[in-house]
Amino acid sequence: MFIQTLPSADENKMQFMPGRQVIQKGVVAFDDPDEGREKSPLAARLFDIPGVKSVEFAQDSITITKAGPEEKGPLWIQLKPMVLAAIMDHYMTGMPVLNATSQSQTADAGYSEEDLKIVNSIKELVSERIRPQLLDDGGDIAFKSYDPSEATVTLEMDSSGLSTPAFGTQIKIENTLKHYVPEITRVRFDRMVQQDDAVEAERPGLQTEEAQTIRTLLETRINPAIAAHGGYITLIDIQQETAYVEMAGGCQGCGMADATLKQGVEVEIKRAVPAIERVLDVTDHAGGTNPYYVGY
Fold first, then answer.
1. Same topology for domains 112-195 and 203-287, yes or no?
2. Which of 56, 146, 282, 293 has a CA 20 to 30 Å removed from the CA of 173?
3. pLDDT at 13
4. For 26-53, how does the pLDDT look when each residue is reduced to its tens digit (9 = 90+)?
5. Could you tell me which of 270, 255, 229, 230 has the C-alpha nearest to residue 245?
């Protein structure tokens, strides 16, 4: 992880840019360490550093204000390495920058009155209609964001314990949201942190750079291409030169699954990650079911 820094005209301020999104939109500032610790895991780490007076989060940057010379504050040459370490340590944990309540309040503040009505309708559907059924089936889901410019909803989903294929459940959720909130044109699904942590603790191969490259390839190129057929492919593990994948939704039990894997998916993965020599399918194709659902 490479973090850029930018000095300010105020010698007691410095901007840190981690090269990834910090918060969804707007600006969140903490001058009170107690409030920062309560509302933000990252702010809590930063306020634990002696000399940090305030923390400000923007969409792609973190601004630190330190104690000045009159307060016998530290020099940046002393403070900067500790701030960099705290930011890197935070992102390695996978924890959010803001706690759920604070993040929700910050995100809602950036919506227009009309868009906020849509957001509230989505949240109500997720919490009262969709989430209870997912919990009963061994999964979980939460609202993450709504992009009015593309009419796209992003949800965080834990599908690790589902008794049905994840992609089929996602189609069911998307159909439900589009039916009750016709303004929505697309629904995206992000993995919940808890799911990634639990799985990766058991499978070290998922923590490698090769795994991240394959996941990105699956999410940005392969899964969108097979989504029209109700298919969805997940990376299960990497061991030595072998990548293990699972084919869900319309790919599970499909007679063309092997051809899809060997002629398409494996070729793309090996091209993106030359260290991978083979891609093996661990799907229970005998248990394949129809992935298309009307809704909840």
1. yes
2. 282
3. 93
4. 788 899 999 889 888 999 999 999 999 9
5. 270
3-class secondary structure, 290: coil
For the segment 223-241, the average pLDDT, to the nearest whole number, is: 76
The CATH topology of domain 203-287 is: GMP Synthetase; Chain A, domain 3 (3.30.300)
44: burial class by Cβ within 10 Å (0-12, 13-18, 19+)? buried
Q: Are 105 and 26 in contact (CB under 8 A)?
A: no
Axis crossing angle, helix 113-125 with helix 166-180, rounded to the nearest 10: 130
SS3 label, residue 12: coil
What is residue 228's DSSP assignment?
G
The pLDDT mean for the chain works out to 80
| Domain ranges for the chain | 4-101, 112-195, 203-287
Model confidence at 23: pLDDT above 90 = no
The CA distance from 179 to 45, in Å, is 43
DSSP 229: G
**Given strand 62-66, what is the order of strands in its sheet?**
4-7, 13-17, 62-66, 52-57, 28-30
In the structure encoding, which two tokens stand for residue 234, read together?
A: 């997940």
